[in-house]
Amino acid sequence: MKNYSNKPTSVVRSLFTTTLSFIAICLLGCTSSPVENNAVSEANREISGLVLFPGGAPAEDVFLWLEVLDINTRTNASGAFTITIPKPSEQGLPDGLSGVFKLYAYVANYSVQTINVIIRNGSILYSNADVGKNGVLLQTVVLQKKLAINISTLPAEVNRFSQTTIQAQVTLQATTEEPITVIYRKSGQAYSTRIFLKNIQTKQIYSRQTFTNGLNIVEQITVEQTPQTHTILFRAAAQDDDDASALPLGEYELIPYMLIENNDIPTELFESMGEEVLNATGEFFKVPYQRTGASFKIL
Questions:
Q1: Is residue 1 part of a domain?
Q2: Do residue 183 and residue 225 come from a single domain?
Q3: Domain containing 115: what range?
Q4: Rg for the chain (alpha carbons), in Å?
Q5: Fewer Cβ neighbours under 10 Å: the N or C end of the chain?
Q6: Once rounded to an integer, what is the mean pLDDT over residues 76-82?
C-alpha cells in the first residue's frame, strides 16, 4: 500500500528527471531538434483546455497540477481550465526551466490523465507535445471512471435536533477488471472517523463523528466489479441553538472519508491541495470525487 505520509521528492531530482526526458526527445526523435523552428516568447505562459466525462458531460472541479513548478487550478462548471506558469525569472533558475513536464488531471475515483508540456527557458513551447497553438490543448481530456460510488441515507431527512442515528449506505463498484483498494481508516487512526456534510445551497462544509455501534469496520477493502455496500453511522443533531456546528436547514451532500489507492499519483500533487487533505480533517473535502445518490435533508 502506498505510504501517504512520505515527504515529497526534491525539486532537484524532479528537474534532473524532466531534463533527461527532454534530452531523450531531442536525441531519439529525429535528426533535428523538435523545437528548433518554434518561436518562444515570454508571453507563452498559459495552457488552457477542456475536461469531460465519458458521454460528453463537463467535468467540474477536476484538479489540474503541473509538476516541478507545483502550480494548480480546477476546472469550472463547463469543464474548462486555464493554468499560468510563473515568469522565467521566478522559476528558480537564472534562465527559467527547460524540460518535459507532466500536467495531471485528477479526480479520485477516475483514472488520472497526464498532458505533456515542453518548457524551454521558462516559456511553454506552443504547437509541441500535447499543447497546440496559443496554448490550447490539442485534444479534449476525457476522464475514465474506475470506481462507482453511490451513497444513500436512512432516514433521508431528520429534524436538526433529532438524536436519530443515521445510516449512510456506501456502495462501491469497480468499473474495470482491475481491483481497487479503498482505505476507510489510515493505519493508526481510531476506528471512529469523520463524515462530511456539504450544504448544497451555500457550499459550506460540516463534519460529524462516526461510530461503529458493533459494526465490523475494516481498515481497507478490495473492490471488484461485484458491488459492495458498507454502513457508516452518525448523528446530525446539534446540542442546542448555540452549537457552532449546528446544521442549518437545507439539503446536504454526504462525503464519507475514504481514500482510493493510486500509486501513479505523486505525493506532491496531494500536498499542493493542502497539508491535511489525506487525513480525516476539514481539508479532506478538497479531494475531488464524483459520487451519485440522493441528498440528505435537515428539517
A1: no
A2: yes
A3: 11-142
A4: 22
A5: C
A6: 98
Q: Which of 265, 290, 190 is nearest to 6 (CA)?
A: 265
Q: How confident is the model at residue 13 (pLDDT cuts 50, 70, 90)?
A: very low
Grid coordinates standing for 72?
A: 494548480
Is 187 within 8 Å of 240 (Cβ atoms)?
Answer: no
The amino acid present at 88, given as its one-letter code, is P
* Domain final residue, candidates 142, 158, 191: 142
- Of the three residues 142, 162, 187, the one that is the final residue of a domain is 142
Most confident of 211-225, 238-252, 259-273: 259-273
Characterize the bridge pairing of strands 296-298 and 157-158: parallel
278 vs 39 pLDDT, higher one? 278
Note whether residue 4 is domain-resident: no
Q: For residues 268 and 22, which has the higher predicted lDDT (pLDDT)?
A: 268
Alpha-carbon 259 to chain mean position: 11
Residue whose cell numbers read 495552457: 47
Check: CB of residue 176 under 8 Å from CB of residue 256. Answer: no
Same domain, 76 and 154: no
| Beta strands 80-84 and 99-106, pairing class | unpaired
> Based on the domain organization, do 181 and 250 belong to the same domain?
yes
- Is 208 within 8 Å of 280 (Cβ atoms)? no
Q: Do the Cβ atoms of 153 and 294 come closer than 8 Å?
A: yes
CATH number of the domain to which 53 belongs = 2.60.40.1120
